[in-house]
């Protein structure tokens, strides 16, 4: 089959580095070739027939589509409540901002409601609309509950964890829990045995308890620094354990509100670019606007793009989109583009076990990509070989 699209002239970010004046050849829904133009005879993979449409992206960047493993909604729609159509609206909102792969995150609720929600979300996962389900709560510490309803929290009894996994019908990707609670370590082992990511978060664990959870199979730190004790010189707590262990990938919310730039720098310095995953932790207001919203059973006020609980004032997720996280990481935090691509695409794709399909621009993978201008503002989004946002090159 002849390639259907050629993107040429851009700086293309590959796993091996940046290719200047590069090109990406799209064959239907997949990437046929990516890299330097070169010269290939007809019939050889990467060859381009003379009549193939070419989009000139000179002066732009082409990077892999973004992968968000922690996202509660957007576009005025919640992944935790509402209809399947509402969830699809939220997914589409994030696709407009470059997130071509998204995991739908829930918040703390009663077990029956969470199980029902998991059933609905699993259908969307089966259709390919989402990449899986992340249960954030109810198995978290009341001391670090953040924007979760304390009345609905419970200890991570493995039997209850198993109920949610069963309700998700094999589509559970991750469960955030506090491992210091009764049943915590057994639940981490259960999740690891079932190939589900055990994430440490909303926790009051000590350094030693965190290390025990990692040894039991935990592999992710849920929004590192947030909803956990701070670093201490005598009681280093979970942050030190999570940063130092090569088995852990740390989630970071790079919106300028959740993290001081020095904390972001600390995480990259100690974990390295291979162990960081940028997330949004977005709620309904992402891509929608200020106002009042519900996050599970709790009311949230969004003002100037910052979401806080009406009662208590705790930060309640974010209104972040990953295109803004990317731009901030390069222009404000001064991170290398290749490191940002790893954190926003490759690393989360590996966590999901999906790196053979998404997360990088390589032949045979899904044609999911983002076009950015010289200032790293989003100018185009492609998913499965089709433009979600047509390139805006004027």
From TrEMBL:
<dbReference type="InterPro" id="IPR011059">
    <property type="entry name" value="Metal-dep_hydrolase_composite"/>
</dbReference>
<feature type="binding site">
    <location>
        <position position="258"/>
    </location>
    <ligand>
        <name>substrate</name>
    </ligand>
</feature>
<dbReference type="InterPro" id="IPR032466">
    <property type="entry name" value="Metal_Hydrolase"/>
</dbReference>
<dbReference type="GO" id="GO:0046872">
    <property type="term" value="F:metal ion binding"/>
</dbReference>
<feature type="binding site">
    <location>
        <position position="147"/>
    </location>
    <ligand>
        <name>substrate</name>
    </ligand>
</feature>
<feature type="binding site">
    <location>
        <position position="202"/>
    </location>
    <ligand>
        <name>Zn(2+)</name>
    </ligand>
</feature>
<feature type="binding site">
    <location>
        <begin position="315"/>
        <end position="317"/>
    </location>
    <ligand>
        <name>substrate</name>
    </ligand>
</feature>
<dbReference type="InterPro" id="IPR003764">
    <property type="entry name" value="GlcNAc_6-P_deAcase"/>
</dbReference>
<comment type="similarity">
    <text>Belongs to the metallo-dependent hydrolases superfamily. NagA family.</text>
</comment>
<keyword id="KW-0378">Hydrolase</keyword>
<keyword id="KW-0479">Metal-binding</keyword>
<feature type="active site" description="Proton donor/acceptor">
    <location>
        <position position="281"/>
    </location>
</feature>
<feature type="binding site">
    <location>
        <begin position="226"/>
        <end position="227"/>
    </location>
    <ligand>
        <name>substrate</name>
    </ligand>
</feature>
<feature type="binding site">
    <location>
        <position position="136"/>
    </location>
    <ligand>
        <name>Zn(2+)</name>
    </ligand>
</feature>
<feature type="domain" description="Amidohydrolase-related">
    <location>
        <begin position="61"/>
        <end position="388"/>
    </location>
</feature>
<feature type="binding site">
    <location>
        <position position="234"/>
    </location>
    <ligand>
        <name>substrate</name>
    </ligand>
</feature>
<dbReference type="GO" id="GO:0006046">
    <property type="term" value="P:N-acetylglucosamine catabolic process"/>
</dbReference>
<dbReference type="GO" id="GO:0008448">
    <property type="term" value="F:N-acetylglucosamine-6-phosphate deacetylase activity"/>
</dbReference>
<dbReference type="InterPro" id="IPR006680">
    <property type="entry name" value="Amidohydro-rel"/>
</dbReference>
<dbReference type="Pfam" id="PF01979">
    <property type="entry name" value="Amidohydro_1"/>
</dbReference>
<protein>
    <recommendedName>
        <fullName>N-acetylglucosamine-6-phosphate deacetylase</fullName>
        <ecNumber>3.5.1.25</ecNumber>
    </recommendedName>
</protein>
<feature type="binding site">
    <location>
        <position position="223"/>
    </location>
    <ligand>
        <name>Zn(2+)</name>
    </ligand>
</feature>
<keyword id="KW-0119">Carbohydrate metabolism</keyword>
<comment type="pathway">
    <text>Amino-sugar metabolism; N-acetylneuraminate degradation; D-fructose 6-phosphate from N-acetylneuraminate: step 4/5.</text>
</comment>
């Amino acid at each position: 089959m002849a390639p259907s699209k050629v993107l040429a002239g851009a700086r293309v970010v590959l796993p091996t580095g940046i290719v200047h004046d590069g090109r990406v050849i799209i064959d239907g829904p997949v990437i046929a070739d990516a890299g330097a133009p070169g010269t290939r005879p007809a019939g050889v993979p990467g060859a381009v027939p003379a009549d193939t449409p070419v989009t000139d992206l000179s002066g732009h960047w082409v990077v892999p589509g973004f992968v968000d493993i922690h996202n509660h909604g957007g576009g005025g729609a919640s992944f935790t409540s509402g209809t399947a159509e509402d969830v699809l609206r939220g997914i589409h909102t994030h696709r407009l901002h470059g997130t071509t792969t998204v995991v739908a995150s829930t918040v703390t609720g009663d077990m029956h409601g969470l199980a029902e929600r998991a059933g609905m979300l699993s259908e969307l996962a089966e259709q390919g609309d989402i990449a899986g389900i992340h249960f954030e709560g109810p198995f978290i510490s009341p001391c670090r509950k953040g924007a979760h309803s304390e009345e609905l929290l419970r200890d991570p009894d493995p039997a209850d964890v198993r109920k949610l996994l069963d309700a998700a019908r094999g589509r559970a990707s991750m469960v955030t829990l506090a491992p210091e609670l009764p049943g915590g370590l057994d639940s981490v082992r259960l999740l690891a045995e079932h190939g589900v990511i055990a994430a440490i978060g909303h926790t009051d664990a000590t350094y030693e308890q965190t290390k025990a959870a990692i040894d039991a199979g935990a592999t992710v730190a849920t929004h590192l620094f947030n909803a956990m004790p701070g670093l201490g010189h005598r009681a280093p707590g979970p942050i030190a354990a999570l940063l130092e262990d090569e088995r852990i990938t740390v989630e970071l919310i790079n919106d300028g509100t959740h993290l001081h730039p020095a904390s972001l720098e600390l995480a990259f310095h100690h974990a390295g670019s291979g162990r960081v995953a940028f997330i949004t932790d977005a709620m309904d207001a992402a891509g929608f606007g200020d106002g009042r919203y519900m996050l599970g059973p709790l009311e949230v006020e969004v003002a100037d793009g910052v979401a806080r609980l009406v009662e208590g004032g705790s930060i309640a997720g974010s209104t972040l989109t990953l295109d803004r996280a990317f731009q901030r990481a390069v222009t404000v935090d001064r991170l290398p583009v290749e490191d940002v691509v790893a954190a926003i695409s490759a690393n989360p794709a590996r966590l999901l076990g999906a790196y053979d399909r998404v997360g990088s621009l390589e032949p045979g993978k899904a044609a999911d990509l983002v076009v950015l201008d010289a200032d790293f503002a989003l100018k185009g989004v492609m998913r499965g070989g089709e433009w979600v946002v047509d390139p805006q090159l004027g």
